[in-house]
Amino acid sequence: MTVASLARPEIASLSAYAAATQANLTIRLNANEMPSNANSAVDTELNRYPPVRPWKLRERLAEIYSVLAEQVLVTRGSSEAIDLLLRVFCRPAIDNIVISTPTFGMYKVYADIQGAEVRCINTSAGSDFAPDVCALLEACDAATKLVFVCSPNNPTGNSIRSDDLLRLLRNRKGKSLVVVDEAYVEFTSKESTVGLMARHENLVVLRTMSKAYGLAAARVGSVIAEASVIALLDSVMAPYAIATPIIELALSALTGDRLACTAAQIETLRAERRRLETALPDCTDVERVWPSDANFLLVRFRNLAGVTRRLAEHRILIRDFSTDPGLHDCARITIGSTDENDLLLKALTNSDA
Ligand SMILES: Cc1ncc(COP(=O)(O)O)c(C=O)c1O
């Protein structure tokens, strides 16, 4: 059985929209576009539809991620990739997904929209939020189509151990896709899991340009999967989804100089993360700081409500996660610029400030 056969039968037999042919050096009278660009302030031919899929960007991202172009679908942020996976693989009121909580909230949101059951297995602070693979596997049944693993995990910052991931992949072979969300992977020294794809066709990896590449506003993400899975997701995604100026911008961010700049920014961020990891425990209200592979830290405070209020007075926002399972009195703090982090530490150190 191939992984693509796990898809909803109606999606497997879907006829995708046949977009107007696009070829260079042709007179394009086939797509009801205007013949000229009304916005002369930009060079981009805004009167023309973008390519149905951003082929060049796809090739470049495939190079960066060390996979084949046919294994990549460029999406509007990796959020859209999560939505596509739910829509393609989960039949409403029949299928389910399994997640390790606390984790990124959008897996549940898109599952709820699709009408797929969400089975949550809680992790614990005591085991540094390591996913409980035994319990995850026990939660799976014949209707489990997707197992989501966020690594590094938002909001806890830890990465899954490779033997745990391998166990999940092997046990769910032919039964479920295992989706590893690597939104923050560039901030770790650990390798991406895409290397495992050659031997595990049920592995799907999500990547994004929103975090380490600093392009959250551009909305560029990727799904990396076996080509037949990509073809199914492609058949559901809207044609022309990625706008021409965004394709150009993303491609320019992936050239030599800009990549070097991104690498330097990642290094600075990691140094700032180390600085905050060391300095925060000395602040009176801080009870615990967990190690993090991402661009944020999970912190337990003695008086979270008071701290949040005090920081807000300094116009500093942090994200309260205290209602998530196992995260009482916890907040997630994104690593900012050196100046922003100085202000954070000052506001936390000096309660009268
Ligand atoms: C773990 C994780 N995955 C995916 C996303 C979505 O990112 P985007 O849609 O910007 O690619 C986020 C955003 O915060 C996230 O934390």
Describe this structure in words.
The structure is a single chain. With 353 residues, this protein is of the alpha/beta class. It folds into two domains: 8-254, Aspartate Aminotransferase, domain 2, CATH 3.40.640; 258-349, Aspartate Aminotransferase, domain 1 (Alpha-Beta Complex), CATH 3.90.1150. The protein has helices at 9-12, 55-65, 77-89, 106-114, 133-139, 162-171, 227-236, 244-253, 256-279, 304-313, 338-349, and strands at residues 72-75, 96-101, 117-122, 144-150, 177-181, 203-208, 221-224, 286-289, 296-301, 319-320, 330-334. The strands form two sheets. A seven-stranded mixed sheet has the order 1-7-6-5-4-2-3, sandwiched between helices. It has a four-stranded antiparallel sheet with strand order 8-9-11-10. Strand 4 (144-150), helix 6 (162-171) and strand 5 (177-181) form a beta-alpha-beta unit. Helix 3 (77-89) runs parallel beside helix 4. The longest helix is centred in the C-terminal third of the chain and has 24 residues, at 256-279. The model has no long low-confidence stretch (mean pLDDT 95). Pyridoxal-5'-phosphate (PLP) is lined by residues 77-79, 104, 150, 154, 181, 183, 208, 210, 216, 221.
